[in-house]
Write a structure and sequence with these properties.
Structural class: alpha+beta
Distance between the termini: 41 Å
Radius of gyration: 21 Å
Strand order of the largest sheet: 6-7-5-15-16-17-14-18
CATH topology: D-Amino Acid Oxidase, Chain A, domain 2
Number of strands: 20
Strand content: 25-35%
Largest sheet: 8 strands, mixed
Shape: globular
Order of helices and strands: EHEEHEEHHEHEEHEEEEEHEEEEHEEEH
Oligomer: single chain
CATH superfamily: D-Amino Acid Oxidase, subunit A, domain 2
Number of helices: 9
Number of domains: 1
C-alpha cells in the first residue's frame, strides 16, 4: 500500500524531499505556511552559489555533484532555467587550504578547478582589483541557482506529478507509543499521515524545543545589490563569475543577474532573529561595510547606488552540518534542516537522501544525526555561505 507522507515546509529541503518521495511511490502532501521560497524562509531570495569546494569533506562535494546533475536534468525537463554556469573565482588573501584540500575530491568527480596567476586573472577579470590577493582559482562548473524560482518550480512539478500542496501552518501533534498519529493545522484541524517530515528550517527550534532547542539558531544575513554603470558589460554573468573572497572578512557575491545589480553578501554570522516576526531592514553599518568592500574589490563600482537590500537568514546548526534524522521519540517523524547557509545547493541530493531514509531504511550519516547535537561544541562557520 502507498504510505501517506506529509512534508511540512516547501523550501529547498522540503520540496525536493516531497518530490523524491512521490517519485518513489508514496502518496505525499506538501505544506507550507507562506509558500515555496517565501521571504521569511531560508530558501527565499534570488540566488544561491553552487560550488563544489568543501575542504577535506568529500561527502558534500559528492552531494554537490549529484545535485548539479539533478539541477541540470530538471531545468531541461521543466523548461525553466534554475542553474546557470558562470564559474566561481576563489580569492585568497592568505591560507588557501579550504579549497586545495578539496581538489582531489573535485577532480575525482570531474569538477575542474584551475589555479590562475594574478596577471592572467587580471586579464580575464579587469573589473576585479587583485593587488592584495595571493592565491586565485577558477572552479569551472560552479555558478548560481535561482532560489525562489527553484522552490516554486519544484512545487509545480510535484503537483504536476500528482502530489498535493496545501498552504497552511502546521505544528506537531501529540506523541504516543513512539509515534505521532497526527499533526495540527493552524485552524485546529488534524492532519493525519503515516509519516511526517518536518523540513521547517529555522522553525525547527520552536516546533521541537526540547529536542532541537538552541541547536538551530537563525541569524540575520544582509545582502546588497549595487548598480552597475550603463553600458558596462563587465558585471554581466557572461563576463563575471560568481566570486568568493577569503580575506580578513569573508564576502561573496554574484554578477548582475537580470539587471538587478552586483550582489554582495557578508558571510559573518549576524544577530539572532525570529524568522516569523523579524523586520527585514538592513543596518547602516552593514551597508557601509559592503560599500567599503565594493570600493576596494570592484573599483569601478565605488560610489555605486544601492539598488536593493535584503535580510535573509542562515539556520545554523552547532557544527554546520545538516540535520537529517528520525525523531528519537516518534518512529514516524523525521526532521530535515540545519542548512547553515550552505545547504541550498545540496537540496536535490539532501531530499533524495531523506526519501531513502524514510522509504528504504537507508543508513544515515552520523554527522546528520540528531544525537550529535547534545555533544555539540562551539559553533563553527567552516563551510561558508552560499546566499
Amino acid at each position: 500500500m502507498q504510505p501517506h507522507i506529509a512534508v511540512i515546509g516547501a523550501g529547498a529541503f522540503g520540496g525536493w524531499t516531497a518530490l523524491h518521495l512521490l517519485r518513489r511511490g508514496a502518496r505525499v502532501t506538501l505544506l507550507d505556511a507562506w509558500g515555496p521560497g517565501n521571504s521569511r524562509s531560508s530558501s527565499g531570495g534570488e540566488t544561491r552559489v553552487l560550488r563544489g569546494g568543501y575542504g577535506k569533506d568529500a561527502l558534500y562535494t559528492q552531494w554537490v555533484a549529484r545535485s548539479l546533475e539533478l539541477w541540470r536534468e530538471s531545468q531541461q525537463q521543466w523548461g525553466v532555467e534554475l542553474y546557470r554556469r558562470t564559474g566561481a573565482v576563489w580569492l585568497f588573501a592568505g591560507d588557501d587550504g579550504y579549497l586545495t584540500d578539496s581538489l582531489p575530491h573535485l577532480a575525482a568527480l570531474g569538477l575542474r578547478v584551475d589555479p590562475l596567476e594574478r596577471a592572467e586573472a587580471a586579464r580575464r577579470y579587469p573589473q576585479i582589483r587583485l593587488d592584495d590577493v595571493e592565491k586565485i582559482y577558477l572552479e569551472h562548473e560552479a555558478g548560481f541557482v535561482r532560489a525562489r524560482a527553484a522552490c516554486q518550480a519544484v512545487c509545480r512539478q510535484f503537483q504536476g506529478d500528482g502530489g498535493r500542496y496545501v498552504q497552511a501552518a502546521v505544528e506537531p501533534g501529540p506523541m504516543a507509543s513512539g509515534a505521532m498519529p497526527h499533526a495540527v493545522l493552524a485552524d485546529g484541524s488534524r492532519l493525519e499521515a503515516d509519516v511526517f517530515v518536518f523540513a521547517c528550517g529555522p522553525w525547527l527550534a520552536s516546533l521541537f524545543p526540547e529536542l532541537v532547542g538552541e541547536a538551530i539558531q537563525a541569524t540575520r544575513q544582509e545582502v546588497y545589490f549595487f548598480g552597475t554603470p550603463s553600458g558596462d558589460a563587465g558585471f554581466e554573468p557572461e563576463n563575471l563569475p560568481v566570486w568568493l573572497d577569503f580575506g580578513k572578512r569573508r564576502f561573496y557575491g554574484f554578477p548582475s543577474i537580470d539587471g538587478r545589480g552586483l550582489k554582495i553578501a557578508d558571510d559573518v554570522r549576524g544577530a539572532s532573529i525570529d524568522p516569523s516576526s523579524a523586520d527585514r531592514a538592513p543596518t547602516p553599518e552593514g551597508v557601509k561595510a559592503a560599500r567599503r568592500f565594493i570600493a576596494r574589490r570592484f573599483p569601478r563600482l565605488a560610489g555605486a547606488p544601492l539598488l536593493e537590500a535584503r535580510v535573509c537568514q542562515y539556520e545554523n546548526s552547532p557544527d554546520g552540518h545538516l540535520i537529517l534524522d528520525r525523531h528519537p521519540e516518534a518512529q514516524n517523524v523525521w526532521l530535515a534542516g540545519g542548512g547553515s547557509g550552505h545547504g541550498f545547493k545540496l537540496s536535490p541530493a539532501a531530499g533524495e537522501h531523506v526519501a531513502r531514509l524514510v522509504l528504504e531504511g537507508a543508513p544515515n550519516e552520523p554527522r546528520f544525526e540528531i544525537e550529535r547535537l547534545a555533544q555539540a561544541g562551539p559553533r563553527t562557520t567552516q563551510f561558508g555561505g552560499s546566499r
